[in-house]
Write a structure and sequence with these properties.
Elements lengths: L3 H7 L5 H16 L4 H11 L9 H22 L1 H9 L3 H28 L3 H18 L13 H13 L7 H11 L4 H30 L6 H17 L3 H6 L5 H19 L12
Helix pairs in contact: 2-3, 2-4, 2-11, 3-7, 4-10, 4-11, 6-8, 6-10, 7-9, 7-13, 8-9, 8-10, 9-10
Amino acid sequence: MRSRSSVVRAQHTLAPSRAFALGALHGPAELLPVSSSGHITAIPWLLGWDYGELDEELRKSFEVALHAGTAAALLITLRDEVNEAVRGLNGRRAALIALSFAPPAIVGYGLERAIERHLGTPPTVAAGLLAGAVVMAFADRAPQTRSHDDAGARDAFWLGVAQACALIPGVSRNGATLAAARLLHFTRKDANRLSRHAALPVIAGATLLKGIRLRRRGLEPGTGAAFAAGASASFASTLLSTWLIPQVERDRSLLPYAAYRIALASVMIWRLTRPKSGYTRHPGS
């Protein structure tokens, strides 16, 4: 017999129009150091949508579809850079990729369920946005003395640790790896390059693993149109937002992104402190 919370959640569905809007949001939010997962939680909540009331498995499956759309677009957009990296792959670079991949893979495999259950709420997303903003602002002051060719095992390990921290919604994979690379004294341009090279295997690997799980579980009846709308919008919005990559990569400060994160977190905190903010965490979610 299903619990009352399961029955309540079953009454909520994901409308294709809202799925499309979330997909359109996901692309640029993934390319910028502002946290795509945080935005997928924060924006529907601020708009009063019932996205947070959807069945937990449905939300996770939908977010896999969004990441799949973004990952496919990134592989197309960055194909020249990916091809260059593959052609230049040797034992040393393979070891560095593996070292940067290990921390998020281990943490994600062991703590994925706990993170999704306890750290995907508006309060924790706001905290992640604020914490990430502070680290990014601090990292932006670091000296710029190194190029990506200087990266070694220590650098790969800390980039991996940053990606493991970014499993917390609100932190941002891009923001965490950019901050880590800047703290390691890489130039802004090379920090962006290292951030992408560290993130792409993790994005592709996580999408593949979750996609396999989704295929085994199957889609819930009536959700196909919403999933297709979300994945298509995520793919298209990522392709259309590729001009953001050189904008971030140029010799520009991380401070505007930190300021934006603080502003969004402040709006969320204001909303949370208002009576009857409209957010209820159901048992087991």
